[in-house]
Request: fold
Amino acid sequence: MNVERLYQVILAPVVTEKATIVAENNQQVVFHVALDATKPEIKAAVEMLFDVEVESVQVLNQKGKPKRFGRFEGRRRHGRKAYVRLKDGQEFDFTEVN
Reply:
């Protein structure tokens, strides 16, 4: 896979209460990813950036919420999240990125 593409796949980690609970209970970490990212790309990007072994990747597509500002209607951007499960004995260290 193209290394430049892998750097563009993962946009940011998701830091919420739900993501923290999922991380503690299921050995998973949640990331915002590019809308056109595939599961193999996400797996390769996480393994390359964080030097961990990935067991599985689950992807969630979020539709943007419709919003109004006065008489103007619009919608928020669509998004995509990836739930990345690590193999046993693996840990994420967000402070050290290659």
